[in-house]
Amino acid sequence: MDAVLLPKSWDVDQILDDLDQHGFAMIDDAYSAEYMHALVEECISHLNQFRDAAIQNGVVSNIRSDHILWIDEQLNFAQQHIHYLNALSTQLNQAFFLGIQEAEAHFACYNAGEFYALHRDNPQGKNGRIISTVYYLHENWHGDWGGELRLQDKNGRWHIIAPTPNRIAIFQSDLLHEVIQAKHQRLSITAWLRSGNPIW
User: Fold this and answer.
1) Rounded distance, CA 191 to CA 106, Å?
2) Domain with residues 12-194, CATH architecture
């Protein structure tokens, strides 16, 4: 793959330091307004293809109620986001020897009343997920609309991360976290940086 330059807003040194110290990091104003708008339009134009999210082996569970669409080569703007994440993975591998080989990602839509209860993205280390990322791609968000990411860092402290537009949350996939019930439609791209093919 050709080298991909990360956006200037991605302070890699800060990301690496935050991940090392706390197990999570954030990037605000991640992309240009034009690119973010293109991502939002791409997501919204495919909402009729979203399906109920599953937790494992296609099993739909009552611990989550969001809807997703896996990102493939036909979703050009979302693919560019994955290219950036792959470039970040190279930096993470060099710093922490994580062995990340690929990224997998889907659009996620939480409609009003939907949530994702406490869980880990890599339970028992079985699915190869090492780093989780959430990019908030709605263009407006109000503080009373819910939908926050509640996360326990590697030191046992809890944090509330607001779904601020154009923000990327990055965290270790083994950390306990949840998505608080949304009161308004919340759009995002969830991606995992992983070591290889899942075993489920």
Assistant:
1) 7
2) Sandwich (2.60)
